[in-house]
């Protein structure tokens, strides 16, 4: 049977269904459709499906033209109907895995997906989970549910785990050329998963269990979380010591071995780094193991927006201004450069913290032009008109999109707080006050600008 299924994959007779058409699911569905596989994109969000069906992509990495080509070619079908899954040979789950308010894994999206699959899947289906989760999820939730429904592992269904590695806005590494890990609950599942993903991914790394694959994703992002927390703490220490953290990092980076560069900032964002380590911490606690590194890193990273808001107060005070009533402009609200992704963005937290202190806060981000605030109101970006920047008591640089002209921001701002060393190579460099988590730029006179 394994040989038959593998041949079916190689001949592109394997029908694919993707559950969840967000940052992970839609690019993956497009990849399979472009390679000639009959692909069904399933999502419970009717508005999303209606928009995508009209050829309007809501994912920045997928252009409308690419989406329309796949739709018009007949290889990509979009639906909100669960019964459409019944013809699929492979069902790939790409749903969110958030945390609850008590910082525990929220498995409800995966559970709903699995419940839908077991009611609609045909015998012989390959189920692959891509959502980030704790080790054991594939075996404990997917396999258990399918077996309870009467499916037999190895004949009626196969299961693997292949963690998504999507980096929104990355123009170099996208779905096809990012190496992909896959592990199966048994040898046959691993072989089928490896064969399937190899049709659309340039390099597939097969591991011996779903638990290894699940752990690999958490290890990747926990590693980053801990190192970011460390450099954030070093930035806070350098602030106390009066040392420039940025110059220190550059000096350390000249060592050709044994050092990996990480940089501080106003906080961490995105769906992965702020959340994934807590899945691992939760799993560790279930085994009576307390991971101090993970918990401490989480504490430090989530403290940074508060530290940044305190720095704003200090900066304004130094220039004889109170935060209460001051006008503040946040530049770049998306959590990363050249992306429209606002998920867990520290800019959103800083916006709310400054408002609570009485500041009149606005933001400018052409990539992410609106968001819903804590009160449920919609906040809109001001136009990218540098002449307006001078109207604000303080301009805070959070994220450097390519669309921003840093020199123009410098020329047209009264006072700048640089949270990521964005002004490093600009003419403002000599006006920096070093030793801060965010670098404060002194007011600029018109005479200095002309020079």
From TrEMBL:
Coiled-coil ranges per UniProt: none
Gene Ontology BP, a term: polysaccharide biosynthetic process
Record-annotated UDP-glucose/GDP-mannose dehydrogenase C-terminal domain positions: 329-425
Keywords assigned: NAD, Oxidoreductase
Signal peptide, first to last residue: none
InterPro entries: 6-PGluconate_DH-like_C_sf (IPR008927), NAD(P)-bd_dom_sf (IPR036291), UDP-Glc/GDP-Man (IPR017476), UDP-Glc/GDP-Man_DH_C (IPR014027), UDP-Glc/GDP-Man_DH_C_sf (IPR036220), UDP-Glc/GDP-Man_DH_dimer (IPR014026), UDP-Glc/GDP-Man_DH_N (IPR001732), UDP_ManNAc/GlcNAc_DH (IPR028359)
UniProt KW Lipid metabolism keyword: no
Pfam family, one: UDPG_MGDP_dh_C
Gene3D superfamilies given in the database record: NAD(P)-binding Rossmann-like Domain (3.40.50.720)
Ribonucleoprotein keyword on record: no
Molecular function per GO: NAD binding; oxidoreductase activity, acting on the CH-CH group of donors, NAD or NADP as acceptor; oxidoreductase activity, acting on the CH-OH group of donors, NAD or NADP as acceptor
PANTHER family for this protein: UDP-N-ACETYL-D-MANNOSAMINE DEHYDROGENASE
Family note: Belongs to the UDP-glucose/GDP-mannose dehydrogenase family.
The protein's name: Nucleotide sugar dehydrogenase
